[in-house]
User: Fold these one by one.
Assistant:
Number 1:
Amino acid sequence: MEKPAFSPAELARGEALFRGPCTFVKGVVSVADLPKDGRAEVAFAGRSNVGKSSLINALTGRTSLARVSVTPGRTRELNFFTLGALYLVDMPGYGYARAPKKAVKGWTRLIGDYLKGRRELKRVFLLVDARHGIKPNDEETMKLLDEAAMSYQVVLTKADKPKASELEAVQAKVASELAKHPAAYPQVLTSSARMGSGIEELRAAIAALAS
């Protein structure tokens, strides 16, 4: 599968955006507490332990901006970070069976309410483990995003783990699956926070949404 093409100018805009300060603003547990300043937002969603916090840290060039934990389900609120004219939003991970049912129900309601009619939210980057591809609970989230008519784009994480041939097969399968979903952006991005691959392309994609 071909690597997504970004022009040198697009890559430069992405680098410039993420060279600026990125600061934690607040954690939101209710839609009533969402920022009201009209700043554009991009959000990161994914299964617990998909590498969401590691990717956010790699994007911003920090080591501890987003909390990285070996314990799934640590992010339990919508965490907002400022980045230039954008908010980066770290959403709670889903699919962690050991989390209390009440907590899971609360996160699910919060995510659903956030996605519905949030004008400032420009795109959700849906993180999928490159070793496994789209899982049933990813499908559930994709259905939720489709129903909310919220644009989303899949980013494969941990791309350094599978063999090249296995990665290509997952990329092709994911792209084929996305064609069935009306709100899905067709271009699949691939990344490895550990190796730094795909980071500049994802930065460019985010910068395009900021402008």
Number 2:
Amino acid sequence: MGNPSLFPLIYSGAPQDVLLVILNPLERPETPKRAAEIQERLNEISFNASLIGELRAIAFVQRLIDDGMLKAPIMKKYRRLNVHAIRGGQDLIGYGLASKYDTRWRLLTELRDIGRAEADRWLRECAVHVGTSTSSFDIRKEFLDA
């Protein structure tokens, strides 16, 4: 269980922009106390672990590039990657583990509406960065400097 790997995208000659859709919260405001809450948080952490590891590695490489520490021929292997993120995970904090198995139409349309609202917000605020030399999601701040 986990997110798909980003590294094949980086090294396959894919576009310079990558859009992440974050569905699981990376952080929670409260510490889980009941067994079901702890299990749910454990599942979220396990699911996010590979993504966080790769984003930290990307942030580290970007820091090396920005600081001029990577020189040819190594520089040919690495390139700047612009990361963008639709951060829907925080909007889903109130949905427990049971919601992952709930197929009721009301819940599905509610989740669709939440996703559309977050995508619309991202389009208004962040889409202008796609195709430029800037990320709209600061992975260094989020994953490396913390």
Number 3:
Amino acid sequence: MTETAVLQVDVRAGYRVLTLNRPERMNALDHATLMALITAMDAAEADPTCRALLLTGAGRAFCAGADLGSLEPGADLGDAIERGWNVLARRLTALRMPTICAVNGVAAGAGANLALSCDIVLAARSAKFVQAFSKIALVPDCGGSWLLPRLVGLGRARALAMLAVPVAAEQAETWGMIWRAVDDGALMAEAEAVAAALATQPTHALVMTRHLFAAGTADTFDAQLDRERDVQREAGRAADFHEGVMAFREKRAAVFDGKPA
């Protein structure tokens, strides 16, 4: 385990756990914390033994979003987003491994959208998701304006962003915003079980699935069929496909290496 003042990194067999570690600030992210998180993601990406990434928070909150106390009066918010949150959002969604978020408490503003950017989201039953931007006369960022309409529909997305009402974990599950709400005491055990399971799967195929789904929200049906054809061709060239077929034929568990062709 490595730990800084703002981020804890636990290296497990096949995956890493990144824990936001500013509980006194509800894990709100200033620029230094954003950069620490990006650096930790880069380190996971560079580690060939790391095949899944689990993100969570310390204390009673997952992440309260941007640390407003760290912003200078009159700061260019567009510049702050471009140098920080946009870098983080792009890095997270481009990782070569599946990502899991264990939302242990409040996820507000950009913190909510950071969580929702992960491939699989589990939340403690006490957790809440809040698009808090309108409370300070701002608009959703960290990908929120792209994510929310796709997850919950345009009508709900508009209301959540404009009214800034909290969404309880069980409601988020019902709406399809997250994968599952679990008992608070079981959250990390279940999240780590998911991460450990994903770490044994065909990693590259899982990430190609992520990219296919993202592209499908903008493509026509015919364009998406063409994209599926091309991606499937790539998947079929990888050793994992051949291993999966042989394991099926031999009635045994497949042993995937997770690598592209």
Number 4:
Amino acid sequence: MGQSVAKAILLVGGALICAGEAEAQYRDGPGGHFGISFSAADARGELAGAIDQGFGLELTGGIPLAADGHLRLRLDGGFLVYGLEHIDYCEYSCRVLTELTTTNSILFVGVGPELVLARGDIQPYVFGTVGGTWFVTSSSVDYNDGYGPGDETTNYSDHTFGLRYGGGIRFHATRKVGIDLGVTRHDNGLVSYLTKGDIVDNPDGSITMNPNLSEADLLSFQIGVSIGIR
């Protein structure tokens, strides 16, 4: 965890220094970008012993810090679902079944520098962000009345410091619209979380939770659309 904190300090410090230098520059050329991507993640390290994969969405944005557009301040956030559990039960009568869905999710946000290595129709880039990561398990009830899920409860949650770094390539079909392919390493600290089967329903109506505690590192892959903003 000490190395992660050191990396985070360097990233934030570098971003602040660059931002201060960029303040005096005249901004020319294209501005930043906004993107949305589908994300698939594989667990790494200790987390791989508890879960396999996760899928979700990620939003990214880039604010230019240099006139040539090579250096940007990156903002990103998203979610990954790594577990779903469906249970049918009788609430009033077994003539009508009620569905209980429990979802295990990871939420994350971050900010840090992004360096665009080349300009043009093909733009490789690298980045690093620091922020927070939340592991959340929630349950919702679907009464099968056509209105979708009803009541929802957060069963368990925990959060940790998150360091994310990686890179990718944006292929621009037009000046503003492109395809974004990326890979990201998620270095998370020690965190407590639930997986499928960790909530046990007792005969008296109470529940027992059996949380896991470990480092929670991931490797994720993104494919999405990037839109240039002036």
